[in-house]
Amino acid sequence: MISIEKIAFSYPKAKKLIFKDFSAEFSPGEAVAVTGKNGCGKTTLVRLLTGIERPSAGRITIDGEDTAGMDLFEIGRLIGCVFQDPARQLFCRTVREEIRFGLENMGLSEDEIESKTAKWAEFFRLDGKLLESFPGTMSGGEKQRVVLAAVLAMGTRYVLLDEPTSSIDMRARRALGELLRDIAAEGRGVIFVSHERSFIESFATRELVLP
Amino acid sequence: MSSLRLENLDARVKLFMLLALSTSAVFFRSPKVLLPIFLFTLALVLAGGVSARDAFMRVRGALRLIASLFILQCLFNRSGAPLLRAFGATLITRGGIAAAAYVALRLLIVLLSALIVLTGQRRDYLLALTQLKAPYEIAFMVMAALHFLPLLREQARDVMNAAQMRGARIKKAPIVKRLRLYVTLSAPIVAGAVRKSEQTAVAMEARAFRAYPRRTSMRRLIMKKSDWAVFAAFAVLLAAVIAGGVIWSRAG
Predict the structure, then answer these.
(1) Residue B85, beta-bridge partner list
(2) What is this structure's pTM?
(3) pLDDT given at position B2
(4) Are B17 and B230 in contact (CB under 8 A)?
(5) Other beta carbons less than 10 A from residue B236's beta carbon
(6) How many whole angstroms separate alpha carbon B188 and alpha carbon A162?
(7) Is there a contact between B185 and A71 if contact means CB atoms under 8 Å apart?
(8) Residues on B contacting A at a C-beta cutoff of 8 Å
(9) For chain B, how many structural domains are there in total?
(10) Which parts of chain A sit beneath pLDDT 70?
(11) Superfamily of A1-78+157-211 according to CATH
(12) Percent of chain B with pLDDT strictly greater than 90
């Protein structure tokens, strides 16, 4: 379980606290939609959960372990994260390398890496010629699908997505929603930030509204 | 008194202060001369309204590099009398310490003097450069470059975070693997910067940048008495530094 215990947080030089005494829990097996008005801290919550930002008070634990003592790569092996702007998460020369990158860091065998790469590329319609394409020149929707494939292929215990449907088409949206539901049904945790009411109602098992 | 704060000084005077101080840092090689210049620059920055914390935060990134250069100079410069010996071998020499201090002080002076131009409005430097008869395009490019630096740093941080979030052990990887990773990660940062500059160029053209041969501004910078006083003081300093440097080099 991911547990947020009475955290406080504000950005440097900002006078206003974004979180004060904030607590929440996310259990494996549920798909939680995080919602709230603009500027309420949804993306900041994503950054806190992934360890990019650290709370000034309180603590965040993943399966009982305090993230304060964990490096980003250690958190990354437990929580797969897709950020709001997928272009900033792409750094490899081809889509294939992009999907393989995380799998190689997870220490999987070459056979496993190849089969998972093929499976996730196919799922997000990135197979064929696209697999050898340079992600930097792809459309916004394609970039988002590449990041989703690269992160979901890692099979982390928790999956965190910030506005995952912002650039993808209806077909990919439906497939993604069903996938998130399946991931939760497998006993893994899904947390996603979204403004899209129909997506939340169709695929979330719980909604967390930030104040 | 508040008018003597750095942010209240004319942008042209601040550019001149930067020129005078960084020239001083380049002209002299002796730590005995560079140390007072460093202390003077530090005092000037702090007295001018830049908080010690802010100054530290801004130069913090370069301090590790300066410390590394200091240690390398200490260890590998073998000139001068031995200062520290162990197991029959000379570890540190007087010349090594002097060279290390010279490199560190020079870099610190340049870094601290750059803080002077980070005070005040960025637009004032654009006005300053155009009033100094620099072509508007060049002045704008200088300002745009300054504006791009934090964006570039943010992008670099995002890419590093993204790689780590996918399990890459950047800080704990062996040096060769780490270097290979840095090369991989630098490509999207450069590509992103090029893309961003192209987008900015299109946005500027769309808003009629260079539509007229001459660009005017409603506001003009006007030198106050205090600006002239500071300018004169630094002109004397710069002249003294250049004269001192020439005498020094002839004596040497």
Answers:
(1) B90
(2) 0.73
(3) 47
(4) yes
(5) 11
(6) 21
(7) no
(8) 155, 158-159, 161-172, 184-185, 187-188, 191-192, 195
(9) 2
(10) none
(11) P-loop containing nucleotide triphosphate hydrolases (3.40.50.300)
(12) 29
